[in-house]
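Field log, afternoon session.

UNIT: design team B
ACTIVITY: writing a sequence onto a fixed backbone
BACKBONE:
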């Protein structure tokens, strides 16, 4: 460009002066041309100076375009401050360790029970919304977390989980209402159980969420859990308090999982308190309890549990024993009760197995879910469920139950459970027309379940 300008200036400067001689009348025009030639010459000189200055700044064979604008070197693309992932429901993560995820579950049950007619107990078809829960959970900066969930089944609003947690290394501290550390079956979520209801000991002995402070320490193959608690939100305020502890050994061998555990629990009860131990015939859509201690005056409760389980490919086993003791006021005989169960299950679909995490059974994730060309996971389970509520002057009855379940898990977050249970009772609280208290009650139940 500079050469072109210089050429133009030279051309203008070299216009022959003869033009002025041939037209003396145009002397004014000649003066204007002379002035223009002087301006173009000055411009050419200035451009030449600028080109000289620019050349002096060159450090290599860059093109002139290099000097027009400095382009910063490309660096890593900064991460977005907010992200959204899908984990059954949208989980929103934010800068600094924040996260937020809605959660919920819906269990719809239906079925029937069949008891001897002469007992006078309602039987036949029944149905219920077993659980209808909504809540939120997430993390906060600094290792803190939160979880809040309530249940609206039965047209009542019940708080289930409501806690704040803090995690540092292998230790987790929680404050609020949660499941205490009674046993494997109770700590396994109802979303992941093998039957429509848990074993008899969890309901009969009053396992429930309680308000308190808990510690969990997980290191390698060992899990330690302990808690100090008051009572469930619905039962406060009172002077009841208790403490619980659990230890689990959970080694893993390849894809096989072993579980061995023990738990202890002590509850100190307010003066004048009473307890009652009783159990339904498998399904929850009936309020009939054919074994029942009735109200027992009590000062405190003590419990000891032992648990064992294993997952071996498509096969799993689990079993627990539980001793519940009631310390009664002075002058009354203490009472001891016992319960146990053993179960086994097998997946009919290749590649599927029970999930396990943190000392409890966890979510089943079908290897070939429905919607992706598969049939989901199909599983059969059997269980023997024993409960003895007889001791000394207390005659609450004995149960020997035999349960069978078929479970279809189409996707990670949907299930259909079909259960049959035969309960053989001794010393049942409802006699037949002939006074017999030893008889059987059959139960059949179906559950449709989803969660997010």
């Amino acid at each position: 460009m500079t050469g072109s300008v210089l050429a133009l200036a030279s051309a203008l400067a070299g216009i022959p002066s003869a033009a002025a001689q041939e037209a003396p009348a145009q002397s004014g025009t000649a003066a204007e041309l002379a002035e223009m030639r002087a301006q173009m010459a000055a411009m050419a000189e200035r451009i030449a100076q600028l080109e000289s200055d620019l050349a002096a700044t060159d450090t290599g064979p860059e093109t002139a375009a290099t000097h027009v604008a400095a382009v910063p070197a490309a660096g890593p693309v900064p991460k977005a401050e907010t992200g959204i992932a899908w984990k059954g429901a949208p989980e929103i993560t934010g800068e600094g360790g924040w996260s937020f995820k809605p959660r919920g579950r819906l269990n719809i049950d239906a079925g029937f029970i069949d008891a001897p007619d002469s007992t006078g107990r309602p039987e036949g078809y029944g149905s219920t919304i077993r659980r209808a829960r909504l809540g939120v959970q997430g993390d906060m900066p600094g290792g803190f977390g939160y979880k809040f969930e309530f249940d609206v089944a039965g047209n009542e609003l019940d708080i289930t989980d409501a806690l704040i947690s803090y995690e540092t290394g292998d230790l987790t501290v929680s404050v609020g209402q949660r499941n205490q550390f009674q046993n494997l079956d109770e700590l396994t979520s109802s979303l992941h159980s093998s039957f429509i209801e848990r074993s008899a000991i969890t309901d009969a002995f009053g396992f429930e969420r309680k308000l308190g402070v808990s510690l969990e320490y997980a290191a390698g193959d060992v899990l330690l859990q302990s808690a100090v608690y008051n009572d469930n939100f619905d039962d406060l305020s009172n002077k009841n308090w208790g403490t619980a502890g659990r230890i689990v050994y959970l080694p893993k061998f390849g894809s096989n999982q072993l579980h061995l555990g023990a738990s202890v629990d002590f509850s100190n009860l307010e003066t004048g308190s009473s307890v009652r131990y009783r159990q339904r015939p498998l399904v929850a859509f009936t309020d009939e309890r054919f074994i029942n201690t009735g109200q027992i005056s009590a000062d405190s409760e003590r419990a000891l549990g032992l648990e064992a389980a294993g997952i071996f490919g498509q096969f799993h086993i689990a079993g627990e024993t539980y001793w519940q003791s009631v310390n009664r006021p002075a002058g009354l005989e203490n009472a001891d009760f016992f319960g146990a169960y053993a179960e086994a299950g097998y997946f009919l679909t290749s590649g599927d197995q029970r999930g396990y995490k943190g000392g409890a059974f966890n979510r089943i994730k079908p290897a070939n879910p429905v919607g992706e060309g598969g049939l989901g996971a199909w599983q059969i389970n059997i269980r023997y469920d024993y409960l003895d509520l007889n001791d000394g002057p207390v005659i609450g009855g004995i149960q020997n139950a035999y349960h069978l379940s078929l479970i279809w898990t189409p996707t990670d977050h949907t299930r259909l459970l079909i259960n049959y249970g035969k309960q053989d009772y001794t010393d049942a609280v409802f006699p037949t027309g002939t006074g017999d208290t030893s008889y059987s009650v059959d139960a059949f139940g179906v559950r449709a379940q989803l969660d997010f």
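LOG NOTE: The helical segments are 2-13, 18-22, 27-56, 184-187, 200-204.
NEXT ACTIVITY: expression trials, pending approval
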